[in-house]
Amino acid sequence: MTDPTLERWRLLLGEPGGACLGGQSLDAGAAARDAALDWLYGRDEDLRRRGVRQGGTGASVLTTVDWLDDITRLFPKETVERLQRDAVERYEIHDVVTDPDVLARIEPNPALLKAVLRTKHLMNPQVLRLARRIVEQVVRQLTEKLATEVRSAFSGSRVRRRGRLRLARNFDVVRTLRANLGRYQPETGKVVIETPYFFSRTRRHLEQWQVILLVDQSGSMTGSVIHSAVTAACLWGLPGVRTHLVAFDTEVVDLTADVDDPVELLMKVQLGGGTDIARAAAYGAGLVDQPRRAIVVLISDFYEGGDPRRLVRVVRDLVTQGSKVLGLAALDEQANPDYDRDLAQRLADAGAHMGAMTPGELASFVAEHVGR
């Protein structure tokens, strides 16, 4: 029987790793997995140069549909998602998301959603309808997850004060014990409670705030665009919050009218193009009604194609008038930023809060300021 660890190394290295098995052949299942891996990674010139995995010279007999069927049968779900992600992002195998037969079989996941948004301009109407299934399912999953976090953030920290509403959940154990310690009975080890005490709980009052999300729709910001759309949808309609969503490249597009439908919103986003952050920031500043009740969230990699001095000036003016400015280099579940640190530092010096956040952390930031 082949050692499982050695077999994994053989699958990782491809045919050049045959020495791992000491001359033994792969069994049928492992050989099928090796063929599926080779279909994808055998096209990688860098791996070939490093002698890791070398694809055959003949034309592959596998179609993309065959390959998807094979990996779904041969690998666990997490591995399948990784292989699909590498196919669309690393090797740009566009028919993973533009072939109707493929789309009919594929299991939606966030990597495929990103691929759909990047390639939807290549799709005919029939394919676009199938691709929308991926958008709808993944967005629904993201919304359900984030909605829970948003509700938790906005449920309001409750003000705890002494009261007489006698509900078990409001029972003040510490104060009750302290007040009745004089009635401790050593023979029974119990405290006789003569006067119980309770908290009264009130929700904090929420006044009307504007939350203005300005989202860079350049190709590198795809994950942040997706999560911005979902975050805006979850904030939409909350008491005390009026949400705006604006996408930008060199142009500025106000998508607020579609905020309550993140699927439709994402299908309208046009990824790629240049970047004029200053123009978007100026547009966002123009939306502010009450400066001291506004949070302007600028989501970008801060590689400015416009006028950086104008951008810094707009941010400084927003901060001076009392608005909260939050600059996010990433808004997604990983919150791994890639950004122009020099410009980010200049914005921080102008008074903006700079960083990277998950959508849940952004909701908590908004809730904290709205609840003051």
Automatic annotation (TrEMBL):
Top-rank taxon, per record: Bacteria
Listed InterPro entries: LolB (IPR050458), Uncharacterised_CoxE (IPR008912), VWF_A (IPR002035), vWFA_dom_sf (IPR036465)
Boundaries of every VWFA domain copy: 208-367
Pfam families per record: VWA_CoxE
SMART domains for this protein: VWA
PANTHER family, alphabetized: OUTER MEMBRANE LOLAB LIPOPROTEIN INSERTION APPARATUS (PTHR30634), OUTER-MEMBRANE LIPOPROTEIN LOLB (PTHR30634:SF16)
Name of the protein this chain belongs to: VWA domain-containing protein
Species of origin: Microbispora triticiradicis
